[in-house]
Each structure stands twice: as C-alpha cells, then as structure tokens.
Amino acid sequence: xxxxxxxxxxxxxxxxxxxxxxxxxxxxxxxxxxxxxxxxxxxxxxxxxxxxxxxxxxxxxxxxxxxxxxxxxxxxxxxxxxxxxxxxxxxxxxxxxxxxxxxxxxxxxxxxxxxxxxxxxxxxxxxxxxxxxxxxxxxxxxxxxxxxxxxxxxxxxxxxxxxxxxxxxxxxxxxxxxxxxxxxxxxxxxxxxxxxxxxxxxxxxxxxxxxxxxxxxxxxxxxxxxxxxxxxxxxxxxxxxxxxxxxxxxxxxxxxxxxxxxxxxxxxxxxxxxxxxxxxxxxxxxxxxxxxxxxxxxxxxxx
Amino acid sequence: xxxxxxxxxxxxxxxxxxxxxxxxxxxxxxxxxxxxxxxxxxxxxxxxxxxxxxxxxxxxxxxxxxxxxxxxxxxxxxxxxxxxxxxxxxxxxxxxxxxxxxxxxxxxxxxxxxxxxxxxxxxxxxxxxxxxxxxxxxxxxxxxxxxxxxxxxxxxxxxxxxxxxxxxxxxxxxxxxxxxxxxxxxxxxxxxxxxxxxxxxxxxxxxxxxxxxxxxxxxxxxxxxxxxxxxxxxxxxxxxxxxxxxxxxxxxxxxxxxxxxxxxxxxxxxxxxxxxxxxxxxxxxxxxxxxxxxxxxxxxxxx
Amino acid sequence: xxxxxxxxxxxxxxxxxxxxxxxxxxxxxxxxxxxxxxxxxxxxxxxxxxxxxxxxxxxxxxxxxxxxxxxxxxxxxxxxxxxxxxxxxxxxxxxxxxxxxxxxxxxxxxxxxxxxxxxxxxxxxxxxxxxxxxxxxxxxxxxxxxxxxxxxxxxxxxxxxxxxxxxxxxxxxxxxxxxxxxxxxxxxxxxxxxxxxxxxxxxxxxxxxxxxxxxxxxxxxxxxxxxxxxxxxxxxxxxxxxxxxxxxxxxxxxxxxxxxxxxxxxxxxxxxxxxxxxxxxxxxxxxxxxxxxxxxxxxxxxx
Lengths: 303, 303, 303
Prior knowledge:
The structure is a homotrimer. By secondary structure, chain A is mainly β. Chain A has one domain (about 1-300): Porin (Beta Barrel). The first copy, chain A, contains no helices and 16 strands. The first copy, chain A, has a 16-stranded antiparallel barrel with strand order 1-2-3-4-5-6-7-8-9-10-11-12-13-14-15-16. In chain A, strand 12 (about 230-240) and strand 13 form a beta hairpin. The N and C termini of chain A lie close together (about 5 Å). Chains B and C meet through strand 2, strand 3 and strand 4 of B and strand 1, strand 2 and strand 16 of C.
C-alpha cells in the first residue's frame, strides 16, 4: 500500500479552495504456493481518504491463481481497460492527478471501498505476460443474480488491453472496452505510445475515445450524463535532471467534446517529483477544460 | 484464513440458478507469551462473501488465554456445540456444503460479521485437550446488560462437547446445547462416530436432534419458525484413490421432520476433492429434502 | 495493539451492575525509510469494544514523517494535550480507569473509530524529543472545508505540551489547549509532577483546569453541558512490592466543580497490578464524585 498527504488547491471550489488531502491505502493479501508451483491468493483493500468519517469498509475481495505468467482473477477484479499501461501516463505530482489527460469515460475498475448497492456484481479477469508483452481481458457482470439491477447499466462489460515494450525504448499500449459500466453502447478505446528520446527524457502521445457515459465520481467538475464527452488527444513527456532525482513532467491535452461548464478545448499541466529514495515529494499546476486552475504539493511513500 | 471461488448451481433459485460464489476470510491475531509460558491472544475476522457490498465490518473480537492444553476465551467465542468434531463431517466439495447432513437447529457460533443489533452479547468458552481427548464448554448470554433484548431469545445458551479418537482409527464425537440461540427449550444434541475401515477409507454415522428453532440464516430454503425440524440421521464416508490425491466422499441423510416445502425424508450427495498441495479442487452434487438439486465446482486454498 | 478482558462493576448502573468488558485494539502500520534516514509511515486502528455490534470501522488514518527526534503527523493525529505524559497518571488496574483523577474537559484526541459526521476534520501535529525532553504541538480544524460544521464547535483547537524527566527521578509534565473540541473559550491546562522517593515508590501531584465543556463520551456519569466542571487536584502514588512484580497504586482527587449528580468534592481509588511478564492482572476499587463505587478485575496483554 501507500500513504500520501499534502495540500490541493482547486479554483472556485465551494468552501475553502485549498484543503489538506491525505490517503492511506493498505492492501491485505493472503497467498499460498502449491507443490506444482501454482500460486493462489486473495486480496482485500483498506483505504481511507480525507473526507471519510472512518475507514468505513474494506473493499470487496478477489481471488486469483497465477502460473507461468498467466493470472486468472475472480471477484472484485482489476479490469483490462483500467490496467492499460499508458492510460494514466499524463498524471503529475505526488497525487498522480491529471485533469485533462485522463479518460472521462465510465468503466469498471477494482473497487477500493464498496459496491454501493451493486452487491451482486462479479468480475473475471485474465492476464498473460511473456517477455515484453502483456495481454489482458476482463468481464464484469453488474448483477449476476438477475434480481438486483440497481446502479449503472445492466449489460455486461467486456474489456481487453495490450502493452508492449520494444527494445526498452518504445512503449505501446492499446485498450478497448464494450458497454463500460454496464451501459449498452458505451464503448471506448485507447491507444498510446511513449518513446525514450534520451536516456533521461521520454515523450508520449495518447488518444482516448471517451464513449458516451461519464464517470462523474472520477470527474466531479466535468461533464454530466447526456453531454458529449468527445475524444481526447494528449501529448506528454518527462525529463530527469542531471541529479538523477528530479523529474519534470508535463502534458497538453485537447478534447473536442461539449458540456455545460466547458470553456476551452485545451487543458495542460506541469509537474515535478523529487525522489527521496523510498518516498517522493511532488507538485503540479494544471488547468482543466473549464479554465479552472488546480495545484497540489505533497509527499507520497510506498510500503 | 482462506479463499475460495467457483460456481454454485441451485435448482429453482430465484434469478440465475448458477452463480459465482467467492469468499475471502482473513483471521487477524495478536498474541504474546508470558514468561510463565502462558499464551494470551486476541482475534478478529475480516470476511467478504459474494453478495456483500464491501468488507462491511470486521467481526466482534475474542480474547483468549492458553496454557497446558487449557484454553479460556471471552467475547465473540467459538461455541462447544459448533466445534464438535464430526458435526459437519458430511460436508462435500470445495465449498464444504451439506444440504442434508448438517444440523437444522439454531445455536450460537463465532460471529464472522456482526451481532446485528444483539450488541450486548457476550460469551465465555473453555476447552481442554489431552492426548486424544478434547472437552469443551461454552456459555453465551445474548444480552449481559439486561437492557437490550432485541434478537433471538433472551435465555442464556449453554453447550458442551467431547471428541475422542481411539487408536487413530475410531473418532467419537458428542455434543449438547441447551436454549440454543437463547430460546428456552431449544435443546439439541448430537452423537457421531467415524471409523477408518481401511487406511484410505472411512465410514461414519451421525445423529442430530435439531431442537425446536431453525437457524434460517444457515438454512434459507428449509423449514421456517414453528415447523417440525425432526431428527437427522446421516451415513457418510470417503475414499482416497491410489494416487493419494483424489478423495471421493458421499452421504445419505434421513430427516423425519415436517415443513411446508419438504418433499422427501431422504437427502444425499456425492463429492470429490483433488489435492493440489496447498489448495484443492472440489465438486459436489446433492439433493435436499425439498427434492431440489444443487451442484458446485470450485477451488479453495488456505493461507 | 493490545487485548484486555475482565469484569467491571458500576454501582447503580442501569441493568446489570457487573458486566464483562473486553477490548481488542489492533494498530496497523505501514512505513518506509528513505535513503536519507527519514521514516515515512501511516497508521490506522481497528478496535472492538464490548457493546459494539462488530468491528464496525477502522479509524481515520494519519501519515507521519520522522527524522532525528522530530515527528510531523497529518490526518487523524494524536494531540499534544492528550499525549501529556502524566495527564492519565492516576489510572488504576488492568482497565486503566480513573473516575476521579482524569480530566473532565473536552479536547480532541486520536479517534479510534469514526469522526461521526465530522468528516472534514483534519489535524497536524509536531513532536520533538531530545534526551529527557519532549515538546508537542497540535492543531485540529473540525471542518477544513468550511461546509460541514455539524458536530462540536467550529473553532480550531490548538494545544501544546511539554514533558521533562530530571535525573531519572523527577517527571514534570505541562499542557495547554485552546478551544478544546473546537469550542471558543473552552481553554484548559494541566501541570503535573511525579517524584521517585524510593527506587520502588513514586508520588505525584496533578492539577487540571477542566475548561468549560465536558466530553460526555469520556464521562458518561458525570457533568453535562453548561455545568461547572471546576478544577481537579489529584495526589497519587504507587509502590512495588519486594517481589518486583506486584505494584500497588492509589489516588485521591478533589474537584471544586458543581453538577447535578455531584455529592462530594473528593474521589479516590486503590488498585493493584501483577506483572505476568508480557501480560498483567489488575484490579481497582474507586469512588467517584457522585459517591458511586466502581470496581474492576481483569487481564491485559500487549502485542
């Protein structure tokens, strides 16, 4: 798991624009290796975020079996689309935020807290890694019982993704999801590439078809249901200074969608991370499609 | 703890008859040994089952002290009746299910999730093991405060059980519980024996007086309050194939009770488990007293 | 964490005067050391108390960084006033209870369960230790968002405390808190000293200005809002018998406040703890300001 804390400023946020934001995430795993060299395991997550009254619940669990690069998971699984290697590559700073470059579309992912009433949801995921190639597929049924169709859509979501690294220089990533969040027709895709132009500099380009249905939980200040999410193109890169510890990163993203609060087609951000060797200090300054500025400064450590 | 997952088919279940069922159970223990060689410890359990929105709560806790084979527990304790060695010996497959051979009666056991409003419940349990003999006694007060008599009965439940193994061949088990689940007059008893007729084959016989009050949480498709639970006799056995890994198991049970959905006095099942060395694959096919068929196929691993 | 269990008697308590009381506390920490020798960490707590339906939630979390004796914490932090070294020095027995010598005033502390609606609370704490000196400061904002002022007061609480040990014989402790629990004007202070008159005997004196606002959660049978909490003076001591394992402890406290149920200005108690080497048996007998007697007998172990 990890811990992180710091201050986030959001322009025109109701109440105080600058607030402390802390998250602690604990992954609890149990696992066993069989005599045949097959690993079986289970995971739940305990996560507290600033604004939660308590560590109100652990996550739903998933169970997995791994052998020779092939992993099959059942339960509250990670999904193929969400796991695509470069989908979140524009994120900046200690909080890993990107207000312009991330997908706006709604799709399932590992649920860190609660299904929230969608308690008959079940997922199955498969991933396979060999050398520089990873292939994933996932299937989520929002209600396997047929009796509890309370939230999101009622279709089954199916997703695939592929990551490939060529010669340790070029990363390629692609993903597709059908009926994201269980909504019929909410199909999305993503392609991305990042190339190490120097040993200490990389540049990348992402293209995201955001589909039809926004995940408002992930995008509280963006579009709402029924508005045009458009497609997003993002150019991004990062550069490590000669100290080998300071990493500068930036993106510029263009979205051709149309929603009520949208003021511009261009969002951008710049960030920096300083490696403390086990922890990192980070900061970012970004402007979103509503022409609102956000900034953050914090520290993150993994354990 | 353990993890398990697979598919369970239940004939005529509302909604989909076949559903994925996953459980992850994590026992969290803290313990310390004193200089005198006495062990003190505490346990809580985190358990998620398919159909739960989240890992909604950890269990109430218990505290124990152990020395020279004697263990005393206080709090959310395991009960003597529930711990009887052969009470669940007819269970089959990776999910350890027995729709005909298990007790229908209501009695207290360690609560894996929440007391559900019965929050002034308290238990004390004692167990003593020496050589091949184990003796247990437990006492549960549903409401020690005298002010919170909300659920089940309000009497105190008292239970005892004894297990004895003779010559590593013959297992004997007996148990008695008075005022099960706190209901006055809801007395139950159990006697069972299992004999290893061969090194790789065992045969057993159980007799259960189910008392007067069904635990509907444990028996969702069976009798309801006020119906005659009868007594249950179960004949069961298991056989390990020459590979030493495949174990075939079966039971046939007779119940002379009478409830609305009951169609027959006989239930039966057959199962198989294959040992993966740290995990096991299992399957079962069973028919209950309502003449409904159920089947399951899954994997379970302990960690 | 720790576990403890036993029986507590409270004179004239509604329902049964004697009840079993069990607590299990589990602290879950994650931490990492950076290459520069700085430690980053995070903590959540899982705690179950007798009377809780389940381990209903984990605590809100805090994140800390430590280096060279300086610790900075953010989130659900321990507060300077609550951490003052001798503030709880009159507590007796295995349950560490003091019905006369503890503060009656309301102030923030680490929250073991839930903020209870005050979910935009945030704290920052600093402590610094060098040789025999520890200095602490803490700041709690009950609602950093400016939008969620639901519980307690809405002011920011600020506290400081200092502990100093002289020559391993004399302990000095002082603390001050402004706007305790966020109530304007609810200022409190504490000074205490304890001296080791012999190698196996100590005697101490505490003075507490309880402020204006009682923490009724901590003092269920004492004063209520709007009543005069007065100031508390407590004389206390402890003596270890020649076996080196048995510790006798006692206090007498005087409070000049005035509240409805108060019958006397003097409360007192005597207790004993027997060291089991990793666990301890303890008992106490006390009388509070309402002239009610309470007694307890239990065991506690730390792990």
